[in-house]
Amino acid sequence: MSTYIPSGKEIDRKWFVVDASGKTLGRLATSAADVLSGKTNPKYVPYMDMGDHVIVINAEKIRLTGLKSQQKVYRRYTGFPGGLREESFVRLLQRKPEKIVEEAIKGMLPKSKLGRQMATKLKVYRGDRHPHDAQMPVAMEVRA
Which of 62, 109, 130, 142 allows an S-S link to 115, with CB 3.0 to 4.6 Å? Predict the structure, then answer.
């Protein structure tokens, strides 16, 4: 009996939509990262992008547990001396809630070419509308 090795041509990608209303950020991110990387696919192999597309809606309604919403800080560096920029979770949630969800999910993907390719299948939107109705996404359930 030989080992089954999937071909890139036979990958059938599905579309899933996740409603982030009242969901915990980390739990939503882990389940979305599993789907993006293909770990929910029975034909999963670690060296190929076997994942499906994930659409996250209502990103502004995400929640954190405990005191993290007051204490969490997002940092980025401009590359210049003194260029460390910090922004609190509350301020970033008002300004760009999509970025919070994207960073959490992308941080759980591999840090390689393959991980960047997986991240292109992630779409995050602020409201409850998205432009991917033609793909007929299936609702994906995440624990609260």
Answer: 109
Sheet with 15-19, side-by-side order of all strands: 122-124, 53-57, 15-19, 138-139
pTM to 2 decimal places: 0.93
Element (H, E) at 122: strand 122-124
- Residue 61 φ then ψ, to 5°: -100, 15
List, in sequence order, every beta strand (DSSP E) within 26-94.
53-57, 73-77, 84-88
Is the domain spanning 13-139 CATH 3.10.129.10? The answer is no
Structure tokens at 20: 């982030």
At 86-129, the pLDDT tens digits run 999 999 999 999 999 999 999 999 999 999 999 999 999 999 99
Condensed to tens digits (0 to 9), the pLDDT of residues 24-54 reads 999 999 999 999 999 999 989 999 999 999 9
Give the integer Cα–Cα distance in Å for 118 and 101: 15
Q: How far apart are CA 41 and CA 54, in angstroms?
A: 14
